[in-house]
Specification:
Strand content: 15-25%
Largest sheet: 5 strands, mixed
Helix content: 40-55%
Low-confidence stretches: 9-24, 59-71
Distance between the termini: 62 Å
Structural class: alpha+beta
Radius of gyration: 54 Å
Number of strands: 16
Strand order of the largest sheet: 3-2-1-4-8
Shape: rod-shaped
Mean pLDDT: 80
Number of helices: 15
């Protein structure tokens, strides 16, 4: 595998990882990391996980300067959140909490929107572009939250969706206030939207000490939203109109949920097994720009780490044969060292034997010329011829004598296993022969080469 192939694989894996980290809903990855859900209800901040709460406006014991510093709603909410979470933590947590903040529906502006022909992923950007025409009386920048569905972009779909708007400056102020308390504000959401994210058709009736909101939702999509202040219902005409509209709205839905206190919200969460945040998703959650930027940096770092890990894995795969060979070589080297250590006594004994052989081999290995056997063998071959001369020196024999057939005598000597290199030493005259031969039972040249190599 070449470097170009490795680079192509890394780019392919990074592009796949990047697609997996993106979602059609902005902030979906952030909402999936929520660890704490806090809710504002009647000047109290509740932690929905355990029902604990803290006051938001109990400043009568503070000094004037402290009340001035805590004058903004965002700061009061953030300080109450820090108090709640500090009391709940055991001191072992190191990372900041990811907080979903549920605000009263009266804090949001609500408008019906119809965007036929617009892809679901482009709904929120399209709403931000139309914010001036949808809310002409509001000059500040707004951030929308709306549920996007598969049929959102159908041209024939004319059923309106309800969009919730919150001033962008208020969201940024909340994020900064939470960050000052070492908390990470992941998103803000209208609190009824957490309950309305159910299958089927449902009407959520939310009422606190100041405001009343009625929301109709179908399969988690808010189709209608009616809001009023309780003080306005003191006007008979307005109250009559409100009752007529809400009665018709509630009659159209088979399921009605009435929420008059924080305990009602806690009961609903308990009924759904505490999984309402996952059911609600990120549709009606508005994520601060700073939180989205932090998530973008996190995803970017995650992709870089993933790329580095993939590159390291590919390099490891490329070098794996060399690593295996190095491990095998080291193992064989260790085995050889162990075997050499085990064979050390045997090698010492072998050296002792060789030393003994070098000292005594000159005598014990000296070639033994069996002269009687040699003479008997010659007699058996030469008889009845006459042997007049015999010389034996280091296995070499020279003989002279008389024979009626010297050539036949030479052949008989060659055929005897005790003799070799049989040949006439010189030419014969009449019946006289001169023959040289060597004993096959001794090898003096080899003896001299082994024990006396310097003399060769």
């Amino acid at each position: 595998m070449g470097l170009s192939d490795i680079g192509d694989q890394v780019r392919q894996l990074l592009s796949t990882a990047g697609r997996s980290l993106n979602t059609s809903e902005p902030g979906a990855a952030l909402v999936s990391r929520i660890t704490v859900v806090l809710m504002v209800f009647d000047n109290r901040l509740y932690q929905l996980g355990n029902g604990r709460w803290a006051n938001l406006s109990d400043d009568h014991n503070d000094s004037r300067q402290e009340r001035a510093e805590a004058g903004t709603t965002a700061v009061r909410i953030a300080r109450a959140a820090a108090t709640l979470l500090a009391d709940a933590d055991d001191g072992s947590r190191k990372d900041p909490h990811n907080v979903l903040l549920l605000l009263p529906p009266a804090d949001f502006l609500v408008t019906p929107v119809k965007l036929p022909g617009v892809a679901p992923a482009a709904v929120r950007p399209a709403l931000q572009l139309q914010a001036d025409s949808l809310l002409p009386g509001f000059d500040e920048p707004l951030s929308p939250a709306v549920k996007t569905t598969a049929d959102q972009g159908d041209v024939g779909n004319t059923e309106p969706h309800m969009a919730f708007w919150l001033p962008t400056a208020d969201i940024d102020t909340l994020f900064d206030a939470f960050a000052a308390e070492s908390l990470f504000l992941t998103a803000v959401m209208p609190r009824p939207a957490l309950i309305s994210a159910q299958h089927g058709e449902i009407v959520v009736d939310d009422q606190d000490g100041d405001n009343l909101s009625v929301i109709q939702a179908r399969d988690g999509v808010v189709r209608q939203c009616l809001q009023t202040r309780l003080i306005d219902l003191d006007t008979p005409a307005f109250d009559e109109q409100w009752q007529a509209e809400t009665t018709a709205l509630m009659a159209s839905a088979p399921t009605r949920v009435t929420l008059r206190s924080a305990e009602d919200y806690l009961d609903q969460i308990r009924q759904h097994g505490g999984d309402v945040v996952r059911q609600a998703g990120s549709s009606y959650a508005i994520c601060p720009a700073a939180a989205l930027a932090a998530r973008h940096q996190f995803d970017k770092g995650k992709r870089l780490w993933l790329g580095a890990a993939v590159l390291a894995a590919l390099m490891l795969v490329g070098t794996l044969p060399f690593i295996v060979q190095a491990i095998q070589l080291r193992s064989l080297t260790n085995t050889l060292a162990e075997q050499e250590a085990l064979a050390a006594p045997a090698r010492a004994d072998q050296l002792a034997v060789r030393d003994f052989e070098s000292r005594w081999g000159v005598l014990t290995e000296y070639p033994q010329q069996d002269v009687p056997a040699m003479l008997l063998a010659l007699q058996a071959v030469i008889s009845p011829s006459v042997l007049t001369f015999l010389e034996l020196e280091e296995g070499y024999i020279s003989i002279e004598g008389e024979s009626e057939d010297p050539q036949a005598l030479l052949q008989q000597l060659e055929q005897n296993d005790m003799f070799t290199e049989v040949d006439f030493a010189r030419a014969t005259s009449n019946n006289r022969y001169y023959i040289d031969l060597r004993l096959t039972t001794v090898n003096f040249p080899a003896y001299h080469e082994w024990y006396f190599p310097e003399s060769q």
